[in-house]
Structure of Alpha-1,4 glucan phosphorylase:
Amino acid sequence: MKTGFDKEVFKKSVIYNVKSQFRKTLEEATPEQVYQAVCYAVKDVIIDEWIATHKEYEKQDSKTLYYLSMEFLMGRALGNNIINIMARDEIKEALDEMGFDLNLIEDQEPDAALGNGGLGRLAACFLDSLATLGYPAYGCGIRYRYGMFKQKIVDGYQVEVPDEWLKNGNPFEVRRSEYATEVKFGGYVRTVWENGREKFVQEGYQSVMAVPYDLPVVGYGNNVVNTLRIWDAQPINTFSLDAFDRGDYQKAVEQENLAKNICEVLYPNDNHYAGKELRLRQQYFFISASVQRAVLKYMEKHDDVRKFYEKNVFQLNDTHPTVAVAELMRILLDDYGLTWDEAWEVTTKTCAYTNHTIMAEALEKWPIELFSRLLPRIYQIVEEINRRFIIQIQQKYPGDQQKIAKMAIIYDGQVKMAHMAIAGSFSVNGVAQLHTEILKKQELKDFYEMMPEKFNNKTNGITQRRFLLHGNPLLADWVTSKIGDEWITDLSAISKLKLYVDDEKCQHEFMNIKYQNKIRLAKYIKEHNGIDVDPRSIFDVQVKRLHEYKRQLMNILHVMYLYNQLKDNPEMDMVPRTFIFGAKAAAGYKRAKLTIKLINSVADVINNDPTINGKIKVVFIEDYRVSNAEIIFAAADVSEQISTASKEASGTGNMKFMLNGALTLGTMDGANVEIVEEVGADHAFIFGTSSDEIIRMEHDRSYNPMEIFNNDQDIRRVLMQLINGYYSPQDPELFRDIYNSLLNTQSSDRADTYFILKDFKMYADAQRRINEAYKDEQWWARTAMLNTASSGKFSSDRTIEEYVRDIWHLEKVKVEV
Ligand code: GPK
């Protein structure tokens, strides 16, 4: 426990907050009101550290990281904050004494779901690690009024429901209207001459006020509280319009609507670019506000903007914030009068870019028409960046038109954001070793050859504070009882558990905790799905966004195959298995949504077939999100990481499972490669076509899934069940599209784009190996423990230290209160 926390003061504070916020006594308050009051009481503790942290940063004049991201998938704050101020036991006790259960209070909190999946959750883990390691950092993003939609399953189909996460207010946030910043859209650029220099003035624009809301990001036990700054849009008050525009009613209305729309909703697409104008508005909105503020803040204490990069670094989380390159140039050129070369030097020493995917459909390419209409001055600057970049390409590759076609920032009527990010950054990184190698050798080969010094790898990580200490308290306490609590801030120390993997008593304790966590999940499933699952069965889990490349389809096809086997041979020797799925599909992604329906249809048939004695159960967990993920990871035996090799840049769920003692069933893709490297190939179930071979087959087009279909009776039977009404008697054609996707060539696309049939039998074989392995209780217990013990590398603390060492060059700050 941390010094300075006073239980009695805390209790009084809760009672006072219930009274002042809701004019109620504790006894009268609803659980939601008690939750709010507890948050305010915790905020009281945090706020002094928050102030002290920023005082210290100012005093030290520290270099600051701005992590620019469209997404921060934070999940719930209360439980995490309580843990990080090191007051879990005291607050639990205090609430007990007042007659409340901390877990139930925590359950009142809506998830802050300002992200889609891996990319947004990575940003959230990074903030936790930055604060815990004591590095000065801001997260900068958007305060979406509606975050990731809530998923309901109705008749087996996904239905999207708006996520009203701000409905009852957000107790931890602080509105900072004093930092409101104007952001301009549209209009035109006029050139004027001033003191013998060309000046560019944007006129006839519409603008909005960006108003920041700050959220505390609490470091673990170190008094450091960083800031996640999310921007809201407000209409400009009409008095600040140009004299000319004052009284222009139409314009005032337009500006009001513009402001309303910008922060309305998070685009629910993962690994997919939709090209919507409003999305580009969102990007420029939060980037312009964040960059303007960063420069102003720097200039409060410094006088030479040419040295901006010495005290500031911008990390671009994918290409979504790339307009920062041009916005920083604009400010330096237009507001501070730097020459192009001076401004470019500052910009390219400030910006660094992380790539998170090689999926072609995720690449952001804005039509020039849209881009230049919305951001006329920014477009001018991008044109000039492009012009100079092409000259550089020509100098390096004289006469090579191909290089220009492949590398230009503006080409074919489009602005290519990845190309701008690379040209404008001093660092370009991938998120796992394999992914970075594929970037260098394939996707970004030309850029790598031209500027190899920029490229580097930073393998992703996760925070053990949320995904073990908070999500799995039983295991967390057990680990601490064995090896001490060093692992909480240095996960490499968890390897000390290796001493105990052969100890039978420890094996039992470890597996008993897993069993308790399976009971907890079984209860959750019973409450939310009405399905009974047996906690003694193998919990085989695939939770992640629904995407064809992640191959949830292969998983459910295998369930269908297994069920066929069991029907043919009811005596088949098989450990009972519970197949658990959780996934949101992008609202417009038809095939992904149909896959959800397929999973639920298969579940209906199998779960209600008494002849198989409950040997297979299939569960689709509704509304998979950060808060229920914590419960799911803790309960998993098998971690499904089965993407087509080369397609999953890293994966981070894979690491959360490993930390919690699940065994990986996976392809050699993303960070799975490094997981196997750490735990040893004998302690994971690896299968499938290698990334090299996948890439080769994609080039030579030699793969023909129809051949497999024609020659493999098991596969043929499963696929026929997609179109003969076996799982959809009322509509036998229901799953025709999925069947077609595997077998029929549509236009120039290859059938079975993600090599499901190619890998299917290898997958089924790996599944059989799991069935056998689970029977050896001792082997399984030892291996599960070994997975936890080998997960040290995958802490986001390690990842952040590498970013600091190679890219950001920050210094740790100590905060005393
Ligand atoms: C990558 F490009 C994207 C995207 O739009 N959204 C997203 O979540 C993920 N990602 C990758 O798919 C994962 O492999 C990776 O672990 C994660 O980003 C974090 O790097």
